[in-house]
Amino acid sequence: MHLPEDGEHHVVIVGGGFGGLYAAKALGNKPVRVTFIDRRNYHLFQPLLYQVATGGLSPADIATPLRAIVSRLKNIRVLQADVTDLDPSQQIVYLKDGQVSYDSLIIAAGVTHHYFGHDTWAPLAPGLKTIEGALDLRQRIFSAFERAETEEDTERLNAEMTFVIIGAGPTGVELAGALGELAHHTLINDFRHINTRDVKILLLEGADRVLPPYPPVLSERAAKSLDKLGVTVITGAKVTDIEDHIITYTDGEHTHQIQAATAIWAAGMKASALAHVLAERTGVALDVFGRVKVTEHLTVPGQTDILVIGDLAYREDPAGTPLPGICPVAMQQGGHAAKLILNRLKGKPTKAFRYFDKGSMAVIGRHAAVVNLGRLKFGGFPAWLTWIFIHIAYLIEFDNKLVVLVRWAWNYLTKKKGARLITNRIE
Amino acid sequence: MHLPEDGEHHVVIVGGGFGGLYAAKALGNKPVRVTFIDRRNYHLFQPLLYQVATGGLSPADIATPLRAIVSRLKNIRVLQADVTDLDPSQQIVYLKDGQVSYDSLIIAAGVTHHYFGHDTWAPLAPGLKTIEGALDLRQRIFSAFERAETEEDTERLNAEMTFVIIGAGPTGVELAGALGELAHHTLINDFRHINTRDVKILLLEGADRVLPPYPPVLSERAAKSLDKLGVTVITGAKVTDIEDHIITYTDGEHTHQIQAATAIWAAGMKASALAHVLAERTGVALDVFGRVKVTEHLTVPGQTDILVIGDLAYREDPAGTPLPGICPVAMQQGGHAAKLILNRLKGKPTKAFRYFDKGSMAVIGRHAAVVNLGRLKFGGFPAWLTWIFIHIAYLIEFDNKLVVLVRWAWNYLTKKKGARLITNRIE
After folding, report:
1. Which stretch of A7-11, A45-49, B175-179, B248-252 has the lowest confidence by average pLDDT?
2. Environment class of residue A120 by beta-carbon count within 10 Å: exposed (0-12), middle (13-18) or buried (19+)?
3. Which stretches of chain B score pLDDT less than 70?
4. A59: nearest CB among B58, B193, B414
5. Do A79 and B149 touch (CB under 8 A)?
6. Is the CB of residue B118 less than 8 Å away from at least one CB of chain A?
7. For residues A163 and A258, is the Cβ–Cβ distance under 8 A?
8. Do B420 and A192 touch (CB under 8 A)?
9. What ipTM was assigned to the predicted interfaces of this complex?
């Protein structure tokens, strides 16, 4: 164990997502002091937020207190705080309430939703980035079923029974699949007036296929699995307006309107506001989504003591393709950032960052998924098993998420979902 | 399976707690139609709410969707709705949005907090009756630790590190024990500036001992167990004022003030507002806490078609002692109400309701409890095992709460608590 000493190199990490957490872990019990700052008191396993939204898991199943994760790494102190500004020349990070000076700064503040300038859409079609957002969505989904059960007007009933998901990337596909499972398996015995199998789930995608970043063969498989779960995929659909209960989209020629009580946004991302602060203070360039254009070492050009990693960083691979905003990239960048700082202290050089692509995957409903491991591409039940194995392995790494395994096994065997509580009710 | 027919006797149940739920289950697949109304979409296992507040369990671990519980009982329809009024002569229950007519009405709307006329205390010392309340409390508890970690002013630091629980009934005792466990076991490695063992947990009780409804020998044992967990019990203490960060109480002679950032109310209860509506419409007498004084058949005097059960009902046992507001009473009354209605339809008489006391218990921290089974009174680890066994048996009855068993086993072995997320954060 290494206890921090006052004179030691001080690393400040902003953001407790995968990037920040892997950097912190790699700096644990090393000859540096670390201050690990997040607005939340927990690390969130975002890829499973859709399970919280659809009642399959509880927030605590996919989130772990940051303090618990680093409790044995005595050179790391955790601060729950909002970072508001920074001063690169003085090496100071400003908090909402106080300030922290640094020798090295790792910024891993992530991304948030992007409604392409239509901020009024946000409350009507919420996205899925936070636990509160997932619980809000859960409440919307199950309240729609409750209202449908007592609705006598046919038009309003149809709207309650229609769910629109905008964006067919991994999040949109996984959400649509989970909704299909709810309507066609979990809830079929629970209502007396409505037949939950009549629910319409519409998945709108601007590109010409679902999962556009994946190989076409997997998009096809995903579309087939979605179809089996009663999800209607509409590709080439560009949403032009969202009002309460009405979603408007164009297919390029015609304009269509969907009456739906529940709309979910899974389409766009933009960088955390901290990127703009950084651009203002250092002059660093941002890409169109506000992400920070970093050097091959993940540093801010001209500011070797400031590193940006994870979804907030923009970097291309040698072929000129931008690195995707997914967990493995953030994790590897976190490790790289820590290594770079430790090597510098020893006077050793560090190779440029290279992303090692282990593959990607998405899950669709109860036992179908698609997996892309480079040359190896497969779908169906084997893909689902692979998906669940890898996700549980990650969860277990941080904590006692054994419980999730039991819950999933149970959900799988019984087709039940125990976490479909409508909470956050305003009294 | 019995499908409801339109001409059949229609039972309306208001409230999905233990009383209402056991009535509904006893009426399932019987020759009656049942409408089961609750403001929430779930049944809540209230005795474990303190575990949610202290980060040991997630809401979905102790709550089950009502629809899931009765999904196979096809003569029961569930309605998520607020009951606002009733008309006994027309046999109509009014909802916020609509109305339902009944042939028999079972009211099991329960109780809420009572601040003895000091309603301004409610936001300063919240109680523990709902999931939202438990999550609010969880946020207060863990945020106090977070603020303490960065607080430099000694006086403010002491206030953050002080927790006051008002009322040493089972809820107060269990909460105090769980807080003691957090401070002395769970969190000891998680902070760098504060020592969580320095936390002060003060349990204020107006009577002369903790757990006043229990036999004195068990109160003594509970007090000893609390002491081991660092809880300071102050008996004979009557709270006279609660302001932000200041709790004032009198010991009869002197007035004392405690500086504490977190205060929790576990002292008083009053009947749901529906009792007053019922009194207005039927003239039934209420007791001092607003509970409905029912007949020996649990009916409202003069209104044989209206039954009141659970915490909302006031009834004395043959010795003249009021029945306690605990789950077993509510469960047995639910069964009695169903039997009475079914017997009437067959023209059969029903014996007066008699409560069969199976005992009571309370848990204190990680492996101590007290159990009162009439002649058999015991404490310590055997009592804890009994407590956990009975509670899990109840949880499993409703659902797949196997997961809770795994989580508890894990929490017990590791002394960890995974659910200590600070959510509901206002952005």
Report:
1. A45-49
2. exposed
3. 1-6, 365-367, 392, 394-419, 423-427
4. B58
5. yes
6. no
7. no
8. no
9. 0.82
